Amino acid sequence: MRAVAGRPSSVQRLKKAAIRLLVKKPGSSLAELASAAGIGRATLHRHFTSREQLIGSLLMDCLEAVEQTYMAIEGKYPEDYREQLLQMIGGFIELESEYCFLLRDWEISDTDEIYEILSKQQAAWDAYLQFMVNVKVLRADLPLAWHKSGIDGLIGGAWMGIDDQEIAMKQAIRLAREAVEKAFLEPLS
Protein backbone atom coordinates (compact mmCIF):
# COMPACT_ATOMS: atom_id res chain seq x y z
CA MET A 1 0.00 0.00 0.00
CA ARG A 2 1.33 3.44 -0.96
CA ALA A 3 1.37 6.45 1.36
CA VAL A 4 -1.55 8.78 0.79
CA ALA A 5 -0.74 12.49 0.41
CA GLY A 6 -1.01 14.17 3.79
CA ARG A 7 -1.01 10.84 5.63
CA PRO A 8 2.16 9.56 7.33
CA SER A 9 3.83 6.55 5.71
CA SER A 10 4.02 3.25 7.55
CA VAL A 11 7.69 4.01 8.34
CA GLN A 12 6.76 7.39 9.83
CA ARG A 13 3.91 5.84 11.85
CA LEU A 14 6.22 3.07 13.03
CA LYS A 15 8.93 5.52 14.10
CA LYS A 16 6.47 7.76 15.96
CA ALA A 17 4.90 4.77 17.70
CA ALA A 18 8.32 3.28 18.44
CA ILE A 19 9.47 6.50 20.10
CA ARG A 20 6.29 6.68 22.21
CA LEU A 21 6.55 3.03 23.25
CA LEU A 22 10.33 2.93 23.75
CA VAL A 23 10.16 5.97 26.03
CA LYS A 24 7.70 4.06 28.25
CA LYS A 25 9.02 0.53 27.72
CA PRO A 26 12.60 0.54 26.42
CA GLY A 27 12.81 -3.22 25.90
CA SER A 28 9.83 -3.40 23.54
CA SER A 29 9.99 -6.13 20.90
CA LEU A 30 9.49 -5.58 17.18
CA ALA A 31 6.07 -7.23 17.44
CA GLU A 32 5.04 -4.75 20.17
CA LEU A 33 6.37 -1.84 18.10
CA ALA A 34 4.47 -2.99 14.99
CA SER A 35 1.29 -3.39 17.02
CA ALA A 36 1.69 0.08 18.56
CA ALA A 37 2.09 1.54 15.06
CA GLY A 38 -0.95 -0.31 13.76
CA ILE A 39 1.04 -2.11 11.08
CA GLY A 40 1.70 -5.77 10.49
CA ARG A 41 4.97 -7.51 11.27
CA ALA A 42 5.52 -8.16 7.55
CA THR A 43 5.31 -4.42 6.86
CA LEU A 44 7.70 -3.74 9.71
CA HIS A 45 10.19 -6.33 8.42
CA ARG A 46 10.08 -4.80 4.93
CA HIS A 47 11.53 -1.62 6.45
CA PHE A 48 13.54 -2.91 9.43
CA THR A 49 14.92 -6.43 9.62
CA SER A 50 15.86 -6.13 13.29
CA ARG A 51 15.21 -4.09 16.40
CA GLU A 52 18.80 -2.86 16.17
CA GLN A 53 18.18 -1.52 12.66
CA LEU A 54 15.09 0.36 13.85
CA ILE A 55 16.97 1.80 16.85
CA GLY A 56 19.77 2.81 14.48
CA SER A 57 17.28 4.63 12.28
CA LEU A 58 15.84 6.41 15.33
CA LEU A 59 19.37 7.36 16.39
CA MET A 60 19.93 8.86 12.94
CA ASP A 61 16.69 10.84 13.44
CA CYS A 62 18.01 12.03 16.81
CA LEU A 63 21.27 13.18 15.24
CA GLU A 64 19.28 15.05 12.60
CA ALA A 65 17.19 16.66 15.37
CA VAL A 66 20.40 17.79 17.10
CA GLU A 67 21.54 19.38 13.83
CA GLN A 68 18.15 21.06 13.30
CA THR A 69 18.18 22.38 16.88
CA TYR A 70 21.64 23.81 16.37
CA MET A 71 20.70 25.50 13.08
CA ALA A 72 17.40 26.91 14.39
CA ILE A 73 18.92 28.43 17.51
CA GLU A 74 21.99 29.75 15.73
CA GLY A 75 19.68 31.55 13.28
CA LYS A 76 17.38 32.87 16.00
CA TYR A 77 20.18 34.48 18.05
CA PRO A 78 22.77 35.46 15.41
CA GLU A 79 24.44 38.20 17.46
CA ASP A 80 23.69 37.25 21.07
CA TYR A 81 26.20 34.43 21.43
CA ARG A 82 25.69 34.07 25.17
CA GLU A 83 21.95 33.50 24.82
CA GLN A 84 22.55 31.34 21.75
CA LEU A 85 24.72 28.95 23.77
CA LEU A 86 22.25 28.80 26.66
CA GLN A 87 19.30 28.24 24.31
CA MET A 88 21.22 25.52 22.49
CA ILE A 89 21.86 23.65 25.74
CA GLY A 90 18.13 23.93 26.56
CA GLY A 91 17.23 22.75 23.06
CA PHE A 92 19.46 19.70 23.37
CA ILE A 93 17.92 18.87 26.76
CA GLU A 94 14.41 19.15 25.24
CA LEU A 95 15.28 16.36 22.78
CA GLU A 96 15.18 14.01 25.80
CA SER A 97 11.41 13.73 25.62
CA GLU A 98 11.66 11.86 22.31
CA TYR A 99 15.02 10.19 22.44
CA CYS A 100 15.71 9.28 26.09
CA PHE A 101 15.49 5.54 25.31
CA LEU A 102 18.73 5.94 23.35
CA LEU A 103 20.55 6.29 26.66
CA ARG A 104 19.93 2.56 27.11
CA ASP A 105 20.22 1.41 23.48
CA TRP A 106 23.09 3.61 22.31
CA GLU A 107 25.56 0.74 21.81
CA ILE A 108 23.07 -1.10 19.59
CA SER A 109 23.60 1.45 16.85
CA ASP A 110 27.37 1.39 16.65
CA THR A 111 27.78 1.58 12.87
CA ASP A 112 30.35 3.34 10.69
CA GLU A 113 27.70 5.71 9.33
CA ILE A 114 26.54 6.75 12.80
CA TYR A 115 30.13 7.02 14.02
CA GLU A 116 30.96 9.32 11.08
CA ILE A 117 27.96 11.57 11.78
CA LEU A 118 28.72 11.65 15.50
CA SER A 119 32.36 12.51 14.76
CA LYS A 120 31.32 15.39 12.49
CA GLN A 121 28.81 16.69 15.04
CA GLN A 122 31.38 16.43 17.81
CA ALA A 123 33.94 18.32 15.71
CA ALA A 124 31.32 21.01 14.97
CA TRP A 125 30.44 21.23 18.69
CA ASP A 126 34.14 21.53 19.59
CA ALA A 127 34.57 24.31 16.99
CA TYR A 128 31.43 26.04 18.30
CA LEU A 129 32.70 25.95 21.88
CA GLN A 130 36.11 27.23 20.75
CA PHE A 131 34.33 30.06 18.94
CA MET A 132 32.48 30.83 22.18
CA VAL A 133 35.85 31.08 23.94
CA ASN A 134 37.20 33.33 21.16
CA VAL A 135 34.25 35.75 21.39
CA LYS A 136 34.60 35.80 25.19
CA VAL A 137 31.35 34.03 26.02
CA LEU A 138 33.06 31.00 27.56
CA ARG A 139 35.87 31.52 30.04
CA ALA A 140 39.27 31.59 28.37
CA ASP A 141 41.02 30.48 31.57
CA LEU A 142 39.43 27.01 31.32
CA PRO A 143 40.62 24.38 28.84
CA LEU A 144 38.28 23.63 25.95
CA ALA A 145 38.07 20.01 27.15
CA TRP A 146 36.72 21.30 30.48
CA HIS A 147 33.98 23.28 28.75
CA LYS A 148 33.13 20.36 26.50
CA SER A 149 33.05 17.72 29.25
CA GLY A 150 31.22 19.94 31.68
CA ILE A 151 28.50 21.10 29.29
CA ASP A 152 28.07 17.63 27.76
CA GLY A 153 27.84 16.24 31.30
CA LEU A 154 25.12 18.73 32.23
CA ILE A 155 23.10 17.80 29.14
CA GLY A 156 23.56 14.05 29.76
CA GLY A 157 22.79 14.44 33.46
CA ALA A 158 19.63 16.38 32.63
CA TRP A 159 18.55 13.61 30.24
CA MET A 160 19.11 10.95 32.91
CA GLY A 161 17.37 12.96 35.64
CA ILE A 162 14.36 13.59 33.41
CA ASP A 163 14.29 9.97 32.27
CA ASP A 164 14.43 8.77 35.89
CA GLN A 165 11.65 11.26 36.72
CA GLU A 166 13.84 12.93 39.32
CA ILE A 167 13.52 16.35 37.71
CA ALA A 168 11.10 18.09 35.37
CA MET A 169 12.26 19.27 31.93
CA LYS A 170 11.89 22.99 32.68
CA GLN A 171 13.73 22.64 35.97
CA ALA A 172 16.55 20.68 34.30
CA ILE A 173 16.94 23.37 31.65
CA ARG A 174 16.93 26.13 34.28
CA LEU A 175 19.51 24.35 36.42
CA ALA A 176 21.75 23.58 33.43
CA ARG A 177 21.61 27.23 32.36
CA GLU A 178 22.47 28.39 35.88
CA ALA A 179 25.36 25.94 36.13
CA VAL A 180 26.76 27.04 32.77
CA GLU A 181 26.37 30.72 33.68
CA LYS A 182 28.16 30.27 37.01
CA ALA A 183 30.92 27.87 36.01
CA PHE A 184 31.67 28.37 32.34
CA LEU A 185 30.64 31.83 31.11
CA GLU A 186 32.71 34.98 31.27
CA PRO A 187 31.11 37.46 33.68
CA LEU A 188 28.94 40.12 32.07
CA SER A 189 30.63 43.51 32.12
Summarize the structure.
This protein is mainly α and 189 residues long. It contains ten helices and no strands.
Report on this structure:
- With 189 residues, the protein is an all-alpha fold.
- The protein is 72% helix and 0% strand.
- It is built from 10 helices and no strands.
- It has helices at 10-24, 30-37, 41-47, 51-76, 81-94, 96-99, 102-105, 112-134, 144-163, 169-183.
- The longest helix has 26 residues, at 51-76.
- It starts with 9 loop residues before the first helix and ends in a 6-residue tail after the last helix.
- The mean pLDDT is 85.
What is the molecular shape? elongated
Subunit organisation of the chains:
single chain
Order of helices and strands: HHHHHHHHHH
Give a short account of the largest sheet: none
Helical run tally: 10
Distance between the termini: 62 Å
Q: Which stretches are low in confidence, meaning pLDDT under 50 for 5 or more residues running? A: none
Task: Please describe the structure with a list of short key phrases separated by commas or semicolons.
10 helices, 189 residues, 72% helix, mainly alpha, elongated
What's the topology here?
Blueprint lengths: L9 H15 L5 H8 L3 H7 L3 H26 L4 H14 L1 H4 L2 H4 L6 H23 L9 H20 L5 H15 L6
Helix pairs in contact: 1-2, 4-5, 4-8, 5-9, 5-10, 9-10
